[in-house]
Amino acid sequence: MRSYYGLTRRGHLLLEEGRRRIYHPPRHERWDGAWFLISYSIPENRRQLRDRLRLKLLWLGCGPVTNGLWLSPHDVRSEVREIAHSLRLLRHLEVFRAEHLGFSDTERLVRQCWDLETLDRRYGSFIARWRPQLERCRQGRLPRGRAIRPPLSGLSPEDCFVRRFELTHQYRAFPLEDPYLPARLLPRDWKGDEAAKLFEQYHAALADPADGFLRQVCDAGDDARDGPTALAAGGRA
Asked: What is the pLDDT of residue 3?
């Protein structure tokens, strides 16, 4: 007798949303200079919902101006409505489209809402760790752009699987913190784009051997599990 587990519809949606955020973030969207403001006032006896709302606004890339006022350069109306509906907070939220007229400049406003300096340093650390490994990986690439075999550094398919897991595990923290601001709002020499390109290239380079190792493990598991059962069934027949 076997047991099977599956995801609920909500679980599938969460995984799909996370996958899009990691592999296809809203990068380099055009910006017309308008801001979307999210204002909320939630009673203290519902503060747990307030905390959940804040986490979801962070995931959307919104930044806090004050405790109850957040903003984003992206049109997040539909996403905020969905979040408010799921948390049953619709009557506690308002969304506005606004123009910033003063009194601080835009650069200062961005610094107030998002800690891009710290995030940029973390992107730099990510690049410093994984760039040399990608370069070694490229040296072991097969001709005609084919997927790599174990690179010159001696990585086996199992090593590629572990390396890809570590790479993704480290990179997946960035979408939770990166608001993916339009280029006009980013600091000079922003490392986010370089880190994203590095992640995509190294992830693709490791994909074939890593997937091959995973298939091998799964097939071996199926053989080990189904073999005795099949033999026993044959004997009874």
From this structure: 59
Q: Are 119 and 178 contacting, i.e. CB atoms less than 8 angstroms apart?
A: yes
**Positive or negative torsion for Cα 112, 23, 35, 90:** negative
**What amino acid occupies position 110?**
V
The full 3-state SS of 157-170, as one line of letters, equals HHHHHHHHHHHHHH
Four-point Cα dihedral 64, 115, 175, 41, nearest 10:
-10
Q: What are phi and psi of 3, to 5 degrees?
A: -110, 140
- pLDDT score of 236: 37
User: What pLDDT does 218 receive?
Assistant: 83
Please state, in angstroms and rounded to a whole number, the distance separating the CA atoms of residues 61 and 59.
Answer: 5
Residue 152 has a pLDDT of 37
Can you read off the two tokens belonging to residue 79? 């996403």
The alpha helices in 88-191, defined as continuous H runs, are 106-113, 116-139, 157-171, 174-177
Q: What are the residues facing 145 on neighbouring strands?
A: none
Question: What residues in the chain have per-residue pLDDT under 50?
Answer: 142-152, 228-237
SS3 of 32, please?
A: coil
Torsion of CA 11, 163, 175, 109, to 10 degrees: 160
- pLDDT of the residue at 181: 94
